[in-house]
Amino acid sequence: MIRIKKFTALLLGAFLLLTGCKEQSLSDISIYENKADSILKLMTLDEKIGQVSLFTSDWSTTGPSMRKDYIDLIKQGKAGNIFNAYTVDYVRELQRFAVEETRLHIPLLFGYDVIHGHRTIFPIPLGQASSWDTAAIEKAERIAATEATAEGLNWTFAPMVDLARDPRWGRVMEGAGEDTWLAGLIAAARVRGFQGLDLSDKRSVLACVKHFAAYGAPQGGRDYHTVDMSERSLYEWYLPPYKAAVDAGVASVMTSFNEIAGVPSTSNKWLLTDLLRNDWKFKGFIVTDYSSINELINHGVARDLSEAASISINAGVDMDMQGSAFISQLSDLVKSGKVTEETLDNAVKRILIAKYKLGLFDDPYKNCDKKRETEEIMTPEFLAFAREFVAKSCVLLKNENKILPVPENIRSIAVIGPLADSKPDMLGFWSAAGQWEKCVSLLEGIRNRVGGSVNILTAKGCNVNDENTEGIDQAVSLARRSDYVILALGESSMMSGEASSRTDISLPGVQLRLAEAIIKTGKPVAVVLFNGRPLAIPELDKLAPAILETWFGGTQAGNGIADVLFGDVNPSGKLTMTFPRNAGQVPIFYNSKNTGRPINPQNPYEKYKSNYLDSPNTPLYPFGYGLSYTSFKYSGITLNKTEFQKDDQIIVSVEITNTGDRDGEEIVQLYVRDLVGDVTRPVKELKGFRKVMIEKGNTVNVAFTISPADLSYYHKDMSFTFDPGEFELFIGPNSSEGNSVSFLLL
Ligand code: GLC
User: 102, 411, 422, 555: which one has the fewest Cβ atoms less than 10 Å from its Cβ?
Assistant: First the structure.
């Protein structure tokens, strides 16, 4: 370590003497550029190519290909960055190869998919988003970064902010759902949580917003499939969450596998240079997704790997993840002039600056602290917060006759279903270094809560996803012997996530038959749903008296769910993604267009309207929907005036009364509709929300202030501005209910 410090000081001193630079303030970005330049000047072509290459260790597999020689590559200076390697001992070992066995001692970046926790696993991101609690989301990322850095990591491939309106796509579990504005708030919160206020802080990691761009809109909801949309849709719906992450200072961006309108993102110069760097002023570095340079050949825009490497780095890519495209092709490309050395130097410099910002040149072993690894992982405080977050992420979808919370005088409970006691499934996809053995299953959570006073029976009843019905009878007889049934249904955690699209998004296997048989016993039944995507469950919705959506809650899943089931926590979550009645409705989302033939709600099947012969247009559960154990009454809306000048503030308020018998939080939502625009406008757009605690019997006043600029949109000529005209404003408990008022913008 001493040697590296002296080395850097020598380098810097030499550079400053040569160039006569004055010592600059540390906070000045140019100090990093000067340092990077000072090393760049010493680097050979091969050493530069090593810095723009990223390889996975063989500790976990997150893609289709693997090389085993990554340690040799490090020692040869051909791998300047590693992912999927962690723990202090392993990181120290690999970092030592780079720092002590290469000529220039440049430290490695250590990346990993810390998507919803590192060791303490939190609910999947789509579940976290259902809390609408950006402070909690930020706190979860801070804990994740603390644990990740305690195990040697300094870079996470998160946040994933891909807007998603198609639940057939398995990676909806990884994002924030269908609303652009909410997804942007959450993206910024995640970047703040990961990066903190200073990247050199020992608990901060580089964040990496992904997958740039529009990966969440594949045709047919089929992963990696073609994305084709208008420029307006791209700008209006899909780009803002990435921009929010860039504006929050995200250190890196990951290109997406997909094309957009014929141009794969990994070779899209307009996307990576014109838009991201020049328009958005992004100063960090751009890494590809896993071997996505190589995939340009499959896309049909590159004849061979040499051309693929050339068009990607010339489009703006700085780092090749796992493709070996750069280490095998760039030397010849630079020598032939197809890639200028300046292009390569700029890529190397952006990566070196990131390493400087992390403080790795001052202390390459900064994240190799055995004490932190022992004391700052899965602490009681982290686990307590994880349990709270599980409860906050739950969404109560149905609760007839107050079946929930479970009554206190219950003497026996049957916990039935294929997910009743599955610890591995609680983690969800992308669970990083999470350990399923440390997860609390639903059954364990119920035992922890009432095991001492209630007789708990359990049976699987059936499997998640096969046709075996042999266990149903035994489960039914168990239900008959109990006072209350908790039915744990849904998907396995590997049925969503990457490369996990489904054409049929209904309840898999024979679970519906199990539910029918159990509910037919006449016992009080509450369904607990485990899933990574909206499911089309209209039959279950008809049958079950109560349904609690719990996603995949992570390490503390069972305890957090039990807190809700037994009423210690009043559920307050609201969906951030529409639940369709069937896959045929997809894509279905709340902020859709009115069309020229909107249906007549009084006669939804009227001919020659935009509807179906075999399904309503309405979803099963709309965006923003979620119930509580209490009830809320919304008063009429008060506007400060009904006509506004363009520099006025629109102040709107509503009174909300808790009309139930217990305190509860309500996520009050504000939507706006622009009745006439330069182009067609959505029937509703979320423009604000407040999560308010309202004590039973109390009434609170909730106010919002929006400015006319908040009503801006992309016009025909793609100018982003607002118009005078008539608007409708809605305030309510979800995107389908609530009161409305109109106002005029002059
Ligand atoms: C995967 C994913 C990406 C992830 C990367 C590294 O293919 O698309 O989200 O960060 O590879 O694991």
Answer: 411
